[in-house]
Design goal:
The chain has 262 residues and is mainly α. It folds into two domains: 1-137, Four Helix Bundle (Hemerythrin (Met), subunit A); 138-262, no CATH class. The protein has helices spanning 6-28, 31-54, 61-89, 93-99, 102-114, 116-136, 139-157, 166-179, 185-189, 192-221, 229-261. The radius of gyration is 21 Å and the shape is globular. It starts with 5 loop residues before the first helix and ends with a helix. It comes from Deminuibacter soli. InterPro entries: CHAD_dom, CHAD_dom_sf. This is CHAD domain-containing protein. Residues 1-262 form the CHAD domain.
Length: 262
Amino acid sequence: MEQQTPLQKYFAQRVKNVFNHLHDFDLNGDDTSLHDFRVEMKKLRAVVKFLQQVYPKQKLKRPAHLLRAVFQEAGEIREYQLLQQWLEKHRLKAIQEHYFPALRLEQMMMAFRLRSDHYQADFKEIIEHSAPFVASTNEILAEQYFVDLNAHLQEMTNGDLPATEWHELRKRIKQWLYAINWIRPEEAAEKEPSLSYYNKLQEQIGQWHDLEMIRDSFAQKQIYLSQDIDVQKDFNIAAEKLNHSMRYRERQIEEMLSRQAA
C-alpha cells in the first residue's frame, strides 16, 4: 500500500473531525462543538484553497462554494456570541436588551442545529469532490506552496504594513499555520522559531479584528442615534472601552511587526 502524504493524512483527520463535531453539535447544541466545527471548516477551506492553486479553479468551485456558505452561517453565530460576551463583560444591559437580545442567539443556534442533516450532505459532497485531488497531489507541490507562502509572509511583515492590511495578513498567517502540516516533519521543525511569532501575531490581530466587528455592529444598528437615556449611557461607555481596547491592540500589533522588521 502506498504511503500517504502529509496532506492526505491532514485531510483524512479533518474529514473525521468535521463529522464528529457536527454530530456533537446536533446532539448537544453547545458552543464548544460549534467552535470546533468552525475550526475544522477553516482547515478544510485551507486545503481547498491550496488545491485551487494546483488545479483549474472550476474543478473545485462546488466544494469551495459549499464550504464558504456553511462557514458564513456559522460565522454569523460566532459574531453574535462575541457581541453578547463583550456586552455582558462590560455590563451594558441596555444595548444588549434593545439591540442584541440573548433570545436571538438561541434562535440562530437552533436554526443551525435544525440544518445539521443538510450540512452533513454538503460535507459528503465536499469530500467526494476534493478527495481525488488530495490523493493525486504530489507532496512537492505542497512543499512549494508552503515555501511561497513563507516568502510572502516575510515580505508582508518586514515592511510598514498599514492597519487596513492586518486582516489579510492574519488570513495568510492562518494559511501558513495550516500548510506547515502538509510538509515533512523535519522541514516543519526548521520553521519552529517562526511558528510562535506568527501564532501570537495572528491572535493579536484576531482580537483587534473582533473589536472592529463590534464597533461596526454598533454603527450598523445606529445605536448612537438612540433617544433612550440608558442606551445613550451604555453607548458612551462602550465607545470609550472600544477605543481604549483597540488602541492597546494596535500598539501590540505594531510592536510585533516592528520587531520582525528589525
